[in-house]
């Protein structure tokens, strides 16, 4: 492989030094894979030339955004292509055209000046990119009202493995084959949930005008996103945040079913361990909290809320500063949980993103507690309760791979039986790709192979994510 040849042919940078390869060997998961090269393209032509170089040298190509992914989806052994220079933003009345490398934080700042906002809001805040959000089908607290990335993706432009630019939706051969495969899907095999980042979202495509949605949650395995058109919303005039306290997680979960009927903009859960890190006083008997945010019909909704719920209203905030402070505490739950559990004892995030129909939320929370007790591991839980999506962090001194896999298999079997998904927003990555077949069954998984083959017949793009090569062995590499 002659790296100089690639460097001379592109305007961007090519890195092969030890330090850069180390930096790109990790993301926000516990996995590590050292790439062979890192390319930071300046132009679309650079991306195309990199793909041709990779094909010639039999290297894989994996796109990377902010590296905030939690399941190792941006890690691979070939070329990592960092899209930070694709940073154009154009704002229109109801949508934004945005480059894949734009950081969510930069977009938020510009949108705010125009009185607008983007619906999906991952708790990682400003650090993730649009390409990464599309790659994982990211969502966040406000996805309850405004949808996940897939629901807001109006158009996407990708570079395919063969180096061709493709806009979706369009009447192209590839778009037509997506529709053909989508029509063969048994939609009953898909989880019956409000958000899902597992496998390929063939269920979201019913005709050619929806073919852009297949790129959401595809983790860079079908094409490299260079730009997208995303729906935007008017900033609400006012928001109110109500903090509810509960004596048991079951009561909190049951209340969620009543609260969603009031159309809150967010409905979040934090457990007792996470509460300990919030700088506020809570009555002794309170074991968990719900955050309920409204951004419309506020007076009416708050009074309906107090008549509807079994929990106690502990705090109400309508000033921007207090609301932001309480959201910061909620959004730091992952950091708190790692601090509480001591990161040296943290188990890989495999069962951390399950999502179930809302009527099964209590069962999901109780299942997590039962699993932790049975395997003698410690547990922290928080998440997007209104969507039935709970993040579960486990810690144990016993980091044996067999135990981790046993926990995951037992847990996922029950989640799937509840018609849930093994991942609501973080994706499959290294952590969960081997469970995708279990989620969908043999027939749908075969359609996934066909889809991958249509877009990327030589398995160049982010191999071993979502679908495993037919005779692959488990290659997970933990950084523990
Ligand atoms: C503290 C913390 C909190 C988080 N909270 C949330 C949350 O509330 N909700 C949520 O959904 N997620 C959350 N996440 C996960 C993460 O932030 C999201 O998955 C995010 O969308 C990843 O964006 P990124 O730019 O960092 O992507 P990366 O991690 O760099 O990549 C993620 C995936 O997208 C692919 N990808 C990246 N760019 C492109 C491109 N241009 N074309 C094609 N594929 C591409 C990569 O190959 C990879 O498969 C959290 C993470 C952390 C660390």
From TrEMBL:
<dbReference type="GO" id="GO:0071949">
    <property type="term" value="F:FAD binding"/>
</dbReference>
<dbReference type="InterPro" id="IPR004113">
    <property type="entry name" value="FAD-bd_oxidored_4_C"/>
</dbReference>
<keyword id="KW-0274">FAD</keyword>
<dbReference type="InterPro" id="IPR016171">
    <property type="entry name" value="Vanillyl_alc_oxidase_C-sub2"/>
</dbReference>
<dbReference type="InterPro" id="IPR036318">
    <property type="entry name" value="FAD-bd_PCMH-like_sf"/>
</dbReference>
<dbReference type="InterPro" id="IPR016169">
    <property type="entry name" value="FAD-bd_PCMH_sub2"/>
</dbReference>
<dbReference type="InterPro" id="IPR016164">
    <property type="entry name" value="FAD-linked_Oxase-like_C"/>
</dbReference>
<dbReference type="Pfam" id="PF02913">
    <property type="entry name" value="FAD-oxidase_C"/>
</dbReference>
<dbReference type="GO" id="GO:0008720">
    <property type="term" value="F:D-lactate dehydrogenase (NAD+) activity"/>
</dbReference>
<keyword id="KW-0285">Flavoprotein</keyword>
<dbReference type="GO" id="GO:1903457">
    <property type="term" value="P:lactate catabolic process"/>
</dbReference>
<dbReference type="GO" id="GO:0004458">
    <property type="term" value="F:D-lactate dehydrogenase (cytochrome) activity"/>
</dbReference>
<dbReference type="Pfam" id="PF01565">
    <property type="entry name" value="FAD_binding_4"/>
</dbReference>
<feature type="domain" description="FAD-binding PCMH-type">
    <location>
        <begin position="31"/>
        <end position="235"/>
    </location>
</feature>
<comment type="similarity">
    <text>Belongs to the FAD-binding oxidoreductase/transferase type 4 family.</text>
</comment>
<dbReference type="InterPro" id="IPR006094">
    <property type="entry name" value="Oxid_FAD_bind_N"/>
</dbReference>
<dbReference type="InterPro" id="IPR016166">
    <property type="entry name" value="FAD-bd_PCMH"/>
</dbReference>
<keyword id="KW-0560">Oxidoreductase</keyword>
<keyword id="KW-0809">Transit peptide</keyword>
<protein>
    <recommendedName>
        <fullName>D-lactate dehydrogenase (cytochrome)</fullName>
        <ecNumber>1.1.2.4</ecNumber>
    </recommendedName>
</protein>
């Amino acid at each position: 492989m002659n790296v100089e040849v690639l460097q001379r042919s592109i305007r961007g940078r090519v890195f092969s030094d030890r330090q850069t390869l180390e930096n790109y060997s990790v993301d926000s998961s516990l996995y590590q894979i050292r790439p062979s090269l890192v390319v930071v393209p300046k132009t679309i032509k650079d991306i195309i030339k990199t793909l041709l170089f990779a094909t010639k040298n039999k290297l894989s190509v994996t796109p990377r955004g902010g590296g905030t992914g939690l399941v190792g989806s941006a890690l691979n052994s070939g070329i990592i292509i960092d899209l930070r220079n694709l940073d154009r933003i154009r704002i229109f009345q109801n949508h934004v055209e945005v480059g894949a490398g734009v950081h969510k934080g930069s977009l938020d700042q510009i949108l705010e000046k125009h009185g607008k906002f983007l619906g999906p809001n991952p708790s990682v805040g400003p650090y993730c990119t649009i390409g990464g959000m599309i790659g994982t089908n990211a969502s966040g607290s406000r996805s309850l009202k405004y949808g996940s990335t897939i629901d807001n993706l109006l158009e996407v432009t990708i570079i395919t493995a063969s180096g061709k630019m493709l806009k979706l939706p369009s009447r192209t051969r590839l778009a037509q084959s997506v529709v053909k495969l989508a029509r063969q899907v048994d939609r009953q095999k898909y989880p019956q949930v409000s958000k899902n980042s597992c496998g390929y979202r063939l269920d979201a495509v019913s005709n050619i005008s929806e073919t852009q949605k297949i790129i959401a949650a595809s983790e860079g395995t079908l094409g490299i996103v260079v730009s997208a058109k995303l729906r935007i919303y008017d900033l609400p005039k006012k928001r109110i945040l109500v903090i509810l306290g509960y004596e048991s997680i079951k009561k909190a979960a049951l209340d969620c079913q009543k609260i969603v009927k009031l159309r809150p903009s967010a409905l979040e859960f934090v457990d007792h361990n996470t509460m300990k890190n919030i700088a506020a006083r809570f009555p002794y008997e309170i074991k968990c909290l719900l955050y309920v945010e409204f951004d419309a019909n506020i007076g009416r909704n708050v009074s309906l809320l107090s008549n509807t719920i079994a929990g106690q209203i502990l705090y109400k905030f309508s000033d921007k500063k207090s609301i932001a402070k309480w959201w910061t505490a909620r959004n730091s739950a992952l950091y708190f949980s790692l601090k509480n559990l001591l990161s040296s004892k943290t188990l890989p995030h495999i069962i951390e993103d399950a999502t179930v129909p809302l009527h099964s939320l209590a069962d999901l929370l109780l299942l997590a507690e039962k699993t932790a007790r049975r395997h003698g591991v410690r547990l922290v839980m928080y998440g997007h309760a209104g969507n039935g999506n709970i993040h579960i962090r486990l810690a144990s001194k016993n980091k044996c791979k067999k135990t981790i896999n046993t926990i995951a298999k037992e847990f996922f079997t029950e989640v799937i039986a509840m018609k849930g998904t093994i991942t609501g927003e973080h994706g499959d990555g290294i952590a969960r790709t081997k469970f995708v077949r279990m989620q969908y069954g043999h027939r749908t998984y075969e359609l996934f192979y066909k889809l991958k083959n249509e877009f990327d017949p030589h398995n160049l793009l982010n191999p071993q994510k979502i679908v495993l090569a037919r005779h692959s062995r488990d290659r997970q590499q933990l950084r523990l």
